[in-house]
Amino acid sequence: MNQTTRDLPVVDALRLPEEIRALLRPDELLADRAGRQHRLPRFFYEVRSWSQAKELLLTPHVRLSELLIVDSREAPRLLEDFPHYVPCAVSLLARIIEDLRAKVGAPVFVAANGGYRSPAHRLSVHASPHLWAAAADIYRVGDTWLNTQSSVEKYGTLARELLPDVNVLPFGHQPGETDDHLHLALGYLRAVPAGCDERGSELNSGNPGATLPALLAPSPFESASAQTS
Amino acid sequence: MPATLPAKNFPLLDQIREIGRQARVSALAVALYDYALDLRFSVQASRVFHAASTIKLAILFALYRAAETERVRLTDRLHVRNRFRSQADGSTFFLQADRDGDPDLYKRVGRTATLQELAETMIVRSSNLATNLLLDHLEVPFVTEMLAAAGLEGLRCVRGVEDEAAFARGMNNSVTADGLLEFFRRVHESRALGAENRDRLFDILFQQRFNAMLPAGIPDSAKARVAHKTGEISTVTHDAGMVFLPGRAPYALVILTEYPSAGTGGARNKTVAAVSAAVYEFLQAAGSAATS
Ligand SMILES: [Zn+2]
Questions:
Q1: CB pairs under 8 A between A and B
Q2: Cβ of A111 and B79 within 8 Å?
Q3: What is the dihedral of CA B129, B132, B138, B140, to 10 degrees?
Q4: Suppose A109 and one of A58, A80, A140, B20 were both cysteines; which one would form an S-S bond, judging by CB atoms 3.0 to 4.6 Å apart?
Q5: A11, A49 contact by CB (below 8 A)
Q6: What is the largest CA-CA distance in chain B?
Q7: Selected residue of A180, A181, A182, A183 to mutate for chain B interface (largest B Cβ count, 10 A)
Q8: What is the separation of C-alpha A29 from the centre of its chain, rounded to a whole number of angstroms?
Q9: Superfamily of domain B48-174
């Protein structure tokens, strides 16, 4: 029986040890390339091993591991040690990839560093939906490599037909364009599963009087398996 | 002090010149150092040549220096991506799989490979994609710094493979026969790398798949093991390496050739092999004379 996200604990990253919090930076603001500020995710699935990530099906054809492959530019703690943490939006990202797969009738391949990467990843200079687990860099569909204008545009158009709000970067060689993959993004999507308590965000929202213990309620996740809402 | 052979009226020199003349080379450089006889021989060894794929030795060396200084680990994984920025102007360029010594690595685009795997494919199959990935990761200034620190000024690494914008501006990787000879000597003597990394580096060079030049000049009966790297592009054809023969100390040999017109393979490989054969026969004769 394959595992699903229902089998994964949801953690409030504000409660994680300082060492991990410093890498995930939950609820902190981060500027995108244009200077717009975005609040980083706070609720994460906890993945206890690589074999669990490989076995876990987010959708019938998308395994969690496919969206977690990063190279040595990721922070060593997040690359080599478990548990791993992945923002809860990952299941919605998998859904759009699954739907695209069904629409084109061929497997859809996500590049290394092109699923979720943390704010500590060396490619994470600016805010990007990848840091929210809400973007995928698709480098191949079936036997087609997305390294031409026509292939990037074709699959970008098909993705938009699935969901008009999906953001795809145009083909090109400049920053903000892509020439060897299709960047498909759901935006800066903060998924807060049912059962989560968002108190405590005030800490990072300019409430100088707030302290972490006072703001955090007892963990609601002791036995719960949460559902993305 | 090694014995330096007189350049004039020396049969090996005459032989090499004759090989070059018959092949119509525009330049032929040879650098030899034999540990058994403590003998050094060179022809045009300070002449600068386009490096072609021999520059991969410089990148391999820098990688092992980076591992030695814990800048990287050889088990680190790198995203295999066929997309590079020119060292000249930052413009984007891509490699062509059908022009690469190793088309297989292109099947792994989008996935990851370890630095050790990339080092092996860069040398053994002369993969241009692996070369550019490693150079991108290490960065040109680091490679230059490592070469300078090791006293290897004869190797000049300024760009990746097929960086046309850099090529158009005259930015080319270059080598001298002396520079490559020094590379092999310093690595072999553990002057440039620790013994463990030296052995790893030689292990990769021993697996070389392109064996039509330097090893082809040595008879099979000699049971030689050759740690080497070839380089062939357009007007140049090179081979540089270290020859290990049973029961004797090794010799380092670098053979660089340049032609007035473009072409690779066949006859040009045979020219390098002929020089290798002449050197082998000369050392055999000199060794017998020294021991009789
Ligand atoms: Zn992307």
A1: 42
A2: yes
A3: 170
A4: A140
A5: no
A6: 63
A7: A180
A8: 16
A9: DD-peptidase/beta-lactamase superfamily (3.40.710.10)
pLDDT digits (tens, 9 = 90+) for A134-177: 999 999 999 999 999 999 999 999 999 999 999 999 999 998 99
Across the interface, whether the CB atoms of A179 and B80 are under 8 A apart is answered: no
For the four alpha carbons of B81, B87, B89 and B93, in that order, the dihedral sign comes to negative
The per-residue pLDDT for A202 is: 55
Q: Which residues of chain A are within 8 Å of residue B77 when distances are taken between CB atoms?
A: 71-72, 112
Residue A14 and residue B123: Cα distance in Å, rounded? 47
**A72 in contact with B, Cβ within 8 Å:** yes
pLDDT of residue A127: 97
Alpha-helical regions (H) of chain A: 18-24, 50-55, 76-80, 90-104, 149-162, 212-215
**Could B91 and A180 be called an inter-chain contact, meaning their C-beta atoms sit closer than 8 Å?**
no
Chain B 102-121, CB below 8 Å of chain A: which residues?
A: 109-112
Asked whether the beta carbons of residue A112 and residue B76 sit closer than 8 angstroms, the reply is no
Predicted TM-score (pTM) of this structure: 0.90
Q: Which residues of A touch B136 (CB under 8 A)?
A: none
Q: Where are the domains of chain A?
A: 5-194
Q: Read off the pLDDT band of B263 (50, 70, 90).
A: confident
| CA A203 to centroid of ligand 1, rounded, Å | 30
**Which residues fall inside 5 Å of ion ligand 1, going by CB?**
A 137, 183
The rounded distance, in Å, linking the Cα atoms of A44 and B224 is: 58
CA A69, chain centre distance (Å): 12
Q: Which range is least confidently modeled, A90-104, A113-127, B128-142, B277-291?
A: B277-291
| ipTM reported for the complex, 2 dp | 0.85
Q: Where do the domains of chain B lie?
A: 1-47+176-188+208-292, 48-174
- DSSP β-ladder status, A43-47 and A10-12: antiparallel
Q: Over 80: is that where the pLDDT of A209 sits?
A: no
**A5-194, CATH topology level:** Muramoyl-pentapeptide Carboxypeptidase; domain 2 (3.30.1380)
Number of H helices, E strands in chain A: 6, 10
* The CATH number of domain B1-47+176-188+208-292 is 3.30.450: yes
pLDDT band per the 50, 70, 90 thresholds, residue B79: very high
